[in-house]
Structures are given as structure tokens and as C-alpha cells.
Design brief:
2 copies of one chain form a homodimer. By secondary structure, the first copy, chain A, is of the alpha/beta class. Chain A has helices spanning about 15-25, 40-50, 65-75, 90-100, 110-120, 130-135, 140, 150-160, 165-170, 175-190, 195-200, and strands at about 5-10, 30-35, 55, 80-85, 105, 125-130. Chains A and B meet through helix 1 and helix 11 of A and helix 1 and helix 11 of B. The structure holds a DNA duplex.
DNA sequence: TTGGTATCCCCCCTTTAGGGGGTATTGCGC
DNA sequence: GCGCAATACCCCCTAAAGGGGGGATACCAA
């Protein structure tokens, strides 16, 4: 039957891929045509698998799932990517969708949601599991969207560089760095650098 | 047969529990007598399950797996806890073992390691999967061990409180807070507060 | 054209943090 | 008894961050 959806799974959590594989194969809906535990494995094999749907973990060991997603959806536009993740950070979801993912599941989603997601993205729709859907509609998290430069500075601040050091590194005036820093505190509503770093890491803004 | 080991699983990742359950049940070694997705569920049911081995996720939604581990190993000393986690942070492993866990697995462990772990802890041994074993033997991470007070201060620093504010809150002299802060920077080898906060979060020192 | 946003730069000033010293008590283990 | 770690406290000084202003360019969209 050509009727079943071909699914490939990319996730470094081997137990989870076992579970997923069983879940998918036991359904009437789809069959698993391949499993990879690293981005490199996925790159090598996806051409042979030619899956309709790729279940892709965001937190791969060898490269960012976000970047891999972009690459794969460009190279294989017929394959729909359904992203999988443990955490539910607004910016991560946003980036995955911007990079061509068709859907998003958190790993503690129910089995039915996984199958529903596979079916939906295979049909060309976008699919967000309930938890992510709620997250994306929450206005509070939406406003945190930093420009390229701001993210760059935030990263350097998190690494503990002082204004002078940052200025030297990216060839800008220390006064400019000060301005950016003040702006970041304002934008994120952070009281000081400590909170700024905390927010940057916890909300994965860098 | 009384020969098979009774296993219970506590993890909020439903797909993973499915995978684990399949894995365990398919083996000759053990059978799954119960699955819970929250600490509350586990508390209610574990008395009925009476498992020999409890596969316990550290990152539960409703309470810390670390605290739950302590509680369960006290209440049910015959049940051996085999901890499961996504990340491999030295301090988390340390705390789990201190709180009575008999073994520790990372979630991307291979299936064989899971079964080996179950068998080992059921036999009263301690078991660390390869990755964790390596981690615990690495001398670099060992030295980071903070006192109660230091952790308390670190937490407040991460929340963005100034020395004066911290002093007011825990009724100490601002000068004392300064000393502790300097000491934390020294101990963790952090250049400034930004790095301190980053390390505290990434290494789950708080 | 006007408004918005991203980029970059400068002044003032105060508060906080960081680097360097130091002291003292308590309680634990050897 | 001695060493040692944890706790709590103090002074001096400099470096860095934070709070308040201000301004400039450029580009894009309404």
C-alpha cells in the first residue's frame, strides 16, 4: 500500500526512538523507514529513506536541530519536518517554524498527538501540539524578539565580557555597547546583568 | 515466576515511557508493574505496585526528582531507584546518589544499558551508565561543591539581588555578602557575575 | 512624508561589583 | 590540642555597571 506515511526519526535518545518507532509501526497510519541518532547519520541516510515526515529532535548532540531543519527542508522540500523537543521555549519554536518545520511536539505529548501530528503535516498542514499552541498564543512571550546585534551582544555579555572588551572585539565604541546593554535590560525587563544572563539562558535567547 | 524483576516507571515523557515499557516487557529479565507521569501519581500508586526497581526521571513536572527520590527510598527501602535524566550534570547525579538512588542512566543510553542497570540495582549493586561513570570520575567537575550558605547566596545573586538587598533579606552584613560573593567567583573560577550566573544555571548548582 | 526600527555614538553622575588585604568564632575530625 | 572548613564580619581602593539625558544615520513601510 502506498497509503501509509513514511516516517523517519532523528533523536539521540535511543529509548525514545524505540518508543516512537513502536508507536508509529503499531498504528495503521504510518511506518518507520529509518532512525538516526545524530545529525550526521541523518544527513547520510535521508536520501535513501525519502520519508514523508521527519520527526526531528531539536537537541541533537552533534549539531543544532534548528540548523539541520533549515538544511533538510531546503534539500528535500517534499519531506515535512515535525519537530520534537523536551522544553517549550518560545524562541526555539519560532526559529524552527521559520526554518521550515511543519509542526512541533513536546516530548511529553500523548501518543495520539504524535500520530495526529504525523497525519497533519503529511497532509501539508501545520501542526502544533496543545502545549506549544498555548505557548505561541501567549502574548507575554511574544514581545521578546531581539535583533541580530542585540543577540550578539547578549551572547558576549553572558560570556562575562565587559563593555570595553566587547567594544574591542567587535570594533564599536564602548559607549555604543553601553547603550545596547541598557536597551537589553529595558527590553527584557531585567534589573541587572545577573537577571539578563539568567533570562538569556533560560529562554534560550542566545 | 518470581524470577522476573518488577519495574515501575515514573517519567512525564509519555513516548519515552512507552518505549521503556516495551523494552522491559520484551526482555526476559523484568516486567513493568506500573507507569506514572507525575510525582503525585507515583506517590499514590507505588504502595500497590511494590516494584523492585523504580525508573525515576529527575525532571518531573510537579516536583524535583531529587526530593522524590529521598522520600521514596526512605519510605520503601526495598525498592531500588534507578535515576533517568536527559542531562548529565555532576551535581544532580551527586545529589541523587546522596538521596538514595542506586543507579543513574542518561536518556540516550542504549537499550542494553537500561536492562543491565535494572539487573544490577535489583541485585543490590550500584550502576552508572558509561557516560555518567566518565563524568563522575572527571576531576575537574568534582571540586565544585558549595556549602549550604554559598548555594543560598548564589541563588539570590542569580535572581539579581545586590549585596545590600541580599544582606537585608538574610540578616547579614553587606560586607559578609561581599566576601561570599568573592569566594564564589574564586571557587567557580568565574570572572564576574555574568559568568557566575551562567555556570550556576548550566551546571545546576542552584 | 512621517513614523518606526536598527544601527551607532556621546555626556553626566551614582551605585555596585571586584580585588586586595584582614579578623574571629564555632564545630568537626584526627 | 591542632588543623580545617564554614560561618560571619571589616577596611581600602579601583573598575565596571546602571540611570538619565542627548544625538546621528539609514532603511523600510504606511
Amino acid at each position: 500500500m502506498n497509503n501509509t506515511i513514511k516516517v523517519a526519526i532523528v533523536d539521540d535518545h535511543k529509548i525514545l526512538t524505540e518508543g516512537l518507532k513502536g508507536l508509529v509501526d503499531d498504528s495503521e497510519l504510518a511506518t518507520v523507514v529509518g532512525v538516526a541518532h545524530t545529525a550526521a547519520d541523518c544527513r547520510h541516510s535521508i536520501g535513501f529513506w525519502k520519508p514523508d515526515v521527519l520527526l526531528l529532535d531539536v537537541g541533537l548532540p552533534d549539531m543544532s536541530g534548528i540548523d539541520l531543519c533549515k538544511e533538510l527542508t531546503t534539500r528535500f522540500p517534499l519531506t515535512k519536518v515535525l519537530a520534537l523537543t523536551t522544553h517549550n521555549e518560545y524562541t526555539v519554536v519560532r526559529k524552527m517554524l521559520d526554518n521550515g518545520a511543519s509542526g512541533y511536539l513536546v516530548k511529553n505529548a500523548m501518543a495520539e498527538e504524535v500520530l495526529a501530528g504525523i497525519e497533519a503535516v503529511a497532509a501539508g498542514k501545520t501542526f502544533l501540539c496543545h502545549e506549544i499552541d498555548v505557548l505561541m498564543k501567549k502574548p507575554s512571550s511574544k514581545n521578546i524578539w531581539l535583533s541580530q546585534r542585540e543577540r550578539e551582544l547578549l551572547k558576549l555579555i553572558c560570556e562575562g565580557l565587559t563593555n570595553a572588551e566587547i567594544a574591542a572585539q567587535i570594533f564599536l565604541s564602548p559607549e555604543t555597547i553601553k547603550s545596547y546593554r541598557k536597551n537589553l535590560l529595558l527590553k527584557l525587563g531585567a534589573k541587572n546583568t545577573a537577571v539578563l544572563v539568567k533570562m538569556a539562558i533560560e529562554q534560550k535567547l542566545i
